[in-house]
Amino acid sequence: MDVTMSKKSKDEYLQKMRWRYAGRTGKAAKSCLIDEFIEVTGYERKYAIKLLRGVRKPPDRPPVKRGRKCIYDEKVIKVIKEIWLLNEQPWGKRLVPVLPIWLKSYEQRHGRLPRGVARKISQISPSQVDRVLETHRASICGRRRRPPKSNASIKAATPIRAQAWDVHEPGWLESDTVAHCGGSMDGSFLWTLDNTDIFSGWTEVRSVWNKGKHGVCERFTQIESTLPFALKGVDTDNGSEFLNWHFKGHFENREPRIELTRSRPYRKNDQAHVEQKNYTHLRLLLGYDRLDHKGLEEPINELLEQWSLWRNLYCATMKQTEKKREEKKGS
Fold first, then answer.
1. DSSP string for residues in 234-274
2. Helix, strand, or coil (residue 98)
3. Structure pTM?
4. How far from chain centre, in Å, is Cα 154?
5. Are strands 259-262 and 203-209 parallel, antiparallel or unpaired?
6. Do residues 171 and 229 touch, judged by C-beta distance below 8 A?
7. How many whole angstroms separate alpha carbon 298 and alpha carbon 188?
8. pLDDT tens across 98-150, in order?
9. What Rg, from alpha-carbon coordinates, does the chain have?
10. What torsion, rounded to 10 degrees, do the Cα atoms 293, 295, 296, 300 define?
11. Which residues are CB-contacts of 34 (< 8 A; sequence separation ≥ 6)?
């Protein structure tokens, strides 16, 4: 019977059966009604129960949009987006307090806004700002890139260094990369390779485009040529720019062989020495803006080379001299 029964007839029959199902009491009575509904419609039993309870909508029906209607139209979003971009794309809690100030400048440049648009912008909440800008934040750089596949073999071949450093000579480096993405990892942009010597605190930074394995390895070679000491070991994180056979072979297929290790996944404290340099040696100079022009790579690289020399030769560096464990009081 379900073969010849039209969709409209099924929907009308469902509404009638829902009313009857709601009025039934007792398991046996409801089970009998469900059997009748299944025989007429041909639905699977669990699905039929959900339809009769009203949990699921009938099949092949267009979804009904629920909830409150959107009050922020394209005119409002356009103004907020432009102010957001001029403010270096902050999140809602940072943008909302300065919106009234920027709104006056916006009207001076583009003309007075309609009263309804200005009122909505002045009343918008930080969380709503994040919601209306979510699609624009994700689409600034175009198509999303898929995350790289896990390489279990290279991870197994690279030992983990989790213990505290105990070195008495320079040459042991911690290495990390810093993304100049402006808050979105989509598309191509500049990265910075940061290397810090554990014993002396000597730090070298270089820019690289898209942190490819060949580009990172080339910049590392440049850094090694400027070091005032011989390289003995390199400890990296678990990024794909380091955990690849090209990078591993560059250090191990040579004499003397350079020891290559990695930190534990999601444990930034394993690389505390280089992590603290990411701010003092990179963010203070280049900030958090997005650097997505290929032509910036070489000029910034020349700047970072001179910057590294200045920081290493003329700026003081703090170093831990001793560690002391104090027993808990009362123990």
1. EEE-S-TTTSSHHHHHHHHSSSSPPEEEEPPTT-GGGGHHH
2. helix
3. 0.54
4. 24
5. unpaired
6. yes
7. 16
8. 888 888 888 888 888 888 888 888 888 888 888 888 877 754 444 555 555 55
9. 31
10. 160
11. 21, 45, 48, 49, 52
